[in-house]
Amino acid sequence: MKQTEKDALKIIGGLVLLVSGADAVRLAWGTHNWVGEFFEYFVSGVLFTVMIVGVPGLAIYLGMKVADWSYRNWLGWITGILLFGLLMVFLPQLIEQIPGVGWKFIRQLKGSDY
């Protein structure tokens, strides 16, 4: 990975954390246990962003790398599609098991505003 790609990932990661933090403050404001709710909403928001942006990006990136390594485009396509499908099926089930965060993540994934 080139240095410019690493710098871009750092900027994107910082923006994700900033937006997730601001949204967590908005959602936790006025609750009884503000600090605990803030961290639960923050983790839920970061995981949601990873699910929506990170998983497709990872599948595309690894699919392109496999295609480059193997010199077979079809193998890259299959790798990317399989990785995307597996992560999109099993990652929500795994995240749902996190106490306090799981149900918030699932509600956010379904489009609810809590």
Task: Give an account of the 3D structure.
The protein is mainly alpha-helical and 114 residues long. It has one domain. 82% of the residues lie in helices and 0% in strands. It is built from four helices and no strands. The chain has helices spanning 3-28, 34-70, 73-95, 102-109. α2 packs across α4. It is elongated and about 55 Å long. The protein starts with a helix and ends in a 5-residue tail after the last helix. The model has no long low-confidence stretch (mean pLDDT 86).
Q: If helices are DSSP runs of H or I spanning 4 or more residues, what is the number of helices? A: 4
Strand content: under 5%
Low-pLDDT stretches are: none
Shape: elongated
Number of strands: 0
Rounded to the nearest angstrom, the distance between the terminal CA atoms is 38 Å
Summarize the structure.
The protein has 114 residues and is mainly alpha-helical. It has helices at 3-28, 34-70, 73-95, 102-109. Helix 1 (3-28) runs antiparallel to helix 2, helix 2 (34-70) runs antiparallel to helix 3 and helix 2 (34-70) crosses helix 4 (102-109).
Keywords for this structure?
elongated, mainly alpha
Give a topology summary.
Blueprint: H1 3-28, H2 34-70, H3 73-95, H4 102-109
Helix pairs in contact: 1-2, 2-3, 2-4
